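Budget justification aside, the reviewers requested a transparent look at the raw inputs and outputs of the sequence design task funded under Objective 1. We therefore reproduce one unedited record. The lines immediately below are the structure tokens for a 458-residue chain.
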């Protein structure tokens, strides 16, 4: 088989790249090689007795134009489902109690999320010491700007929620580039926030939603798999399943992709794979990319979903978006989503549907526990939080050995080095190991990768 573009990896990045090639650049001569028997990568939704089970991402924030445009192009705009208003309340576990995260400055200063000294320290943010001039960790940045207590509680919980990572190891510039840009542009997070508030008032834009700053968590009727399934359907016979790539070589201007089912020749290549897989495939053609790619670790994740027929199973209300757990509070649990409130249609009426995350960089060994021990661990943690341990009526467990990419200090420099080395061999890189782990980030990277591939073909 001969094709212009070979996309290796049929997750959301690979599927979206094919769609953008066709939509933005009129290039339909491409193939997507997926090693497994299904496309979509970590996006996978299943329906079971009235529950919508998400194996991977629960949704995406609706403040990303590329994702919304892609959904519209695929004819899915009428199937978008946004988080219910009942999910607006978010919590952080501190000193064994759930404490609500206030959405206003005044409300936060009056809350018990931080001790008085920690709240007062926030007022000194405009006078914090300047950027040290090198890539710093998220924790060091937060400690410098808003104080150690806020870094330990607020920021560590945020890093746990997004990356399941260690704020003391992850690079601020790589993980939260907007926050780094706020300091660089305004010299202070406080001044940057006031500037954004003024802009929001001027334009009438929404500043926050039930899932976080600037957006509302959104999914599709039937789950996130609707997007990946539609992209796979549109790709048609250009999507080749069960095609693990054994060797990547080059003969003159053509790449040679050796698979178990035959040889594919392509003018240019996109690797939309975990960093480990990309490192393996660049060994021959771009050896200088191997080391920086191999230096991007992943954190394993176990997802434990619990269904309770009785909405009052814990003897107390369980409502809102869910809660996150900072380091040191309960390392058995990273956080729990209240799926019955976030998307009420994803659970039977009058039931509870909880989605607990375990493992991550904090306790990677926990993700590998057998089902019984893992469930016991989650139930014990929930019992400490809610004060009761009712027997769940349904339990589902999903494990991701290669869960979430970890952008440790120096990550962006390593990515630049890998991209430069791969580029010399007409190989592009995109996906969650590089410039963002969310669905929105992957779709944005896919669009940029499609543009680079089209430019190479020109």
């Amino acid at each position: 088989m001969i094709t212009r573009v070979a996309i290796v990896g049929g997750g959301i990045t690979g599927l979206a790249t094919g769609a953008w090639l066709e939509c933005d650049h009129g290039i339909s001569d491409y193939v997507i090689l997926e090693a497994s028997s299904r496309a979509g990568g970590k996006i996978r939704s299943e329906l079971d007795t009235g529950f919508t089970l998400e194996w991977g991402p629960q949704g995406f924030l609706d403040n990303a134009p590329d994702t919304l445009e892609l959904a519209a192009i695929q004819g899915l705009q009428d199937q978008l489902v946004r988080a219910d208003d009942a999910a607006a309340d978010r919590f952080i576990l501190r000193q064994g109690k759930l404490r609500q995260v206030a959405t206003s400055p005044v409300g936060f200063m009056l809350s018990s999320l931080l001790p008085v000294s920690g709240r007062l320290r926030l007022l000194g943010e405009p006078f914090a010491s300047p950027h040290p001039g090198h890539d710093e960790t998220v924790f060091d940045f937060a400690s410098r700007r808003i104080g150690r207590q806020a870094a330990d509680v607020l920021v560590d919980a945020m890093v746990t929620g997004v990356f399941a990572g260690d704020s003391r190891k992850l690079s601020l510039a790589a993980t939260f580039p907007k926050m780094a840009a706020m300091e660089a542009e305004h010299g202070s997070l406080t001044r940057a926030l006031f500037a954004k508030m003024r802009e929001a008032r001027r334009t009438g834009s929404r500043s926050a939603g039930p899932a976080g700053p600037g957006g509302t968590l959104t999914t599709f009727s039937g789950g996130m798999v609707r997007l990946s399934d539609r992209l796979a359907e549109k790709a048609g016979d250009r999507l080749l399943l069960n095609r693990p790539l054994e060797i990547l070589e080059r003969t003159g201007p053509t790449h040679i992709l050796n698979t178990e089912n035959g040889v594919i020749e392509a003018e240019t290549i996109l690797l939309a794979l975990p960093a480990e897989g990309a490192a393996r495939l660049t060994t021959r053609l771009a050896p200088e990319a191997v080391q920086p790619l191999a230096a991007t670790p992943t954190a394993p994740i176990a997802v434990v979903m619990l269904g309770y027929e009785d909405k009052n199973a814990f003897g107390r209300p369980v409502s809102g978006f869910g809660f996150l757990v900072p380091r040191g509070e309960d390392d058995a649990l990273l956080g729990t989503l209240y799926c019955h409130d976030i998307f009420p249609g994803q659970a039977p009426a009058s039931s509870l549907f909880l989605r607990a995350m375990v493992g991550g960089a904090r306790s990677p060994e926990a993700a590998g526990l057998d089902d019984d021990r893992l469930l016991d661990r989650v139930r014990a943690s929930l019992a400490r939080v809610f004060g009761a341990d009712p027997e769940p009526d349904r339990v589902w467990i999903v494990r991701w050995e290669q869960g979430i990419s970890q952008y440790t200090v120096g990550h962006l420099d390593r990515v630049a080095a890998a991209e430069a080395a791969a580029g010399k061999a007409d190989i592009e890189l995109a996906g969650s190991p590089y410039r963002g782990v969310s669905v929105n980030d992957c779709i944005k990277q896919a669009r940029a990768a499609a543009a680079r591939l089209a430019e190479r073909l020109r």
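The longest strand covers residues 394-405. Residues 207-212 have pLDDT under 50 and may be disordered. Computational costs for records of this kind are itemized in the attached budget.
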